[in-house]
Write a structure and sequence with these properties.
66 residues; Alpha-Beta Plaits; two-stranded antiparallel sheet; 24% strand; globular
Length: 66
């Protein structure tokens, strides 16, 4: 099973901390409102979740790739 990061867009404040620590460049803040995670590049390492000051990024198990 793989893990992927998910951001709660309802409470993300777009601080950018996750963007700075993502080793694969999978996270961006394109609209300045909340972070967006590109599942194609996310490897589920958890660095973004550990760095998020609001603790709103979680790692979820992915059972299949779509």
């Amino acid at each position: 099973m793989k893990r992927k990061a998910k951001v709660d867009i309802n409470i993300c404040v777009a601080c950018g901390c996750c963007v700075k620590v993502c080793p694969r460049g999978a996270i961006s803040v394109p609209d300045g409102i909340n972070a967006v995670i590109d599942d194609k590049f996310c490897v589920g390492c958890g660095k973004c979740a550990a760095e998020c000051p609001a603790s709103i990024i979680t790692l979820e198990e992915v059972y299949h790739e779509s």
